[in-house]
Amino acid sequence: MEIWDGLTKAIELLISLDPEVMEVVGRSLRISGTACLLASLICLPLGSLIHFHHFRGKRALINIIQTLFSVPTVLVGLFVLVLFSRAGPLGEVGILFTPPAMVIGQMILITPLLLGLTISALSGVSKEIVDTATSLGASGFQAVWLVLREARYAVLAAVIMGFSRAISEVGCALMVGGNIKGATRVITTVISLETGKGNLELAIALGIILLFLALIINIVLNRLQQR
Amino acid sequence: MSLIEVTGLNHRYGKQAILENVNLSVDRGKVFALIGPTGAGKTTLLRIIDLLEVPSAGEIYFDGKCIPRSGKQRLEIRRRMSFIHQKPQVFNLSVYDNVACGLRWRGEEKNKIDGKVDHILEMVGLEGYKHRNARTLSGGEAQRVALARSLVLEPEVLLLDEPTANLDPVSTAKIEQLISYVARQRNTTMIMATHDMSQGQQLADRIGVLLDGRLVQTGNATDIFRSPQNEEVAHFVGMENIMEGVIIANSEGIATVNIGGNAIQAVSNYPMRKEVYACIRPEDITLALSSTQSSARNSFQAKVTRVTSLGPLSRVEINCGFRLVVLVTKISAEELNLQVGKEVYATFKATGVHIMERKAIQ
Prior knowledge:
heterodimer, A: mainly alpha, 11 helices, B: Rossmann fold, CATH 2.40.50.100, 6-stranded mixed β-sheet, 20 strands, globular
């Protein structure tokens, strides 16, 4: 049986810490980790800004952000591809088919999710906490920081959700990375390519790792949400 | 000179007026109690004084300076005050961090913060709780954390919104003790909102009665409780006996008031034919089984119509031609064997009757 055969070989690859598998996993973690970190650096302050300010169209903006939670990954891939293609507006940067382009793609992909979840995390902190901090002499910035700390578990959960969406997507990584061996291959793109080639053992091995990562992420998330 | 002064304050949410033309001033080191029923606007007034909200109209002066409606100066002034909100909102941090945050925000040095926090936690009796998460504390403990968090800042002005609402009697007593200790020892100026009149009476130098967004009367406890300015205030401060009457004679400050055919005597300067209310506090009336020799000018034979137990006190309703409510201790109620239908003599002094002008209610 092909699947059994593939599974046993996959386990061999995992146990022997096959260099190709490790390289691909390492790159996946680096790219998605960087994308998640950079997106967090943008989304936490931006989310706070949106949450703490009243302006016209706020409700509509939040609706748009929430709609973009489920933006198709290939659409983001298309957008980044057009943006950085040789003839595109940012073509001169010359990062298409390199990890930085994949980082940018994943950042764009998870920004709405991180932004929306940050805003809802902050909304979970009662208005009275802000008032209390303000009466105790907090400046605007200090009060925002305190609220972020109050919502720390929910905010962290948002970041983890962003990371898991980044590491599990395939469309964008494939389109802007190009799946170049030794350069831009990540877990999901390898699974897709190797399955197509009928090379199941590598695909299954990486699939197991991805599932395992998902499990870890889920355990951490559950712990956080119980606090 | 007054440390805090509020002039011509008006505030509205949308079309609804919350505060109307409020003027008040509080001198440095004094405790001012705002009393009034729920929804009168006490919290809003405190929030405006703490510069959390900008009033629709009116000015606030702090230490003689008029506070601008926006800008950095508001934060500087706010840092000289501290506001303890009605529902204590402790932060989801350790007790230590809760108490230290105000000092950190003011840029206080780390080792100074340690000392101050330890000292204040000891003062409120929470020294063993330093590393506990404040969210795990009981209501009374959380309120003490909130108090410690404010007191550690050594504010010039402490604003308290119903500091003991929702607390059990023991916790209430502890908080009240702390408040009066701080007022005396640190000479902290305080503005305290409460609907508990005895608390206002016990802790405050001056009392303001806030009814429906208007500061109806300001004065010391005796003024407010003995000489309310109008029927509304009288009702609110527990004048249970408010009777309509007309002055039929007045000689040398002792007026005779006709209340439904009964003449009672009261200290008042209102002239004859003036339409008035006569108010008597229920605890100022004494009951006896025989008409005793007494200097009190008013003594009436009466029949008990109702007796209600209020713990250590009994509330007795009697009819002596007009209806009166009397508060007596439970023991004397038993000694007098007060029951419905019992004949008693009700006695009260002319000085115990407060006369106020009857105005057409607008």
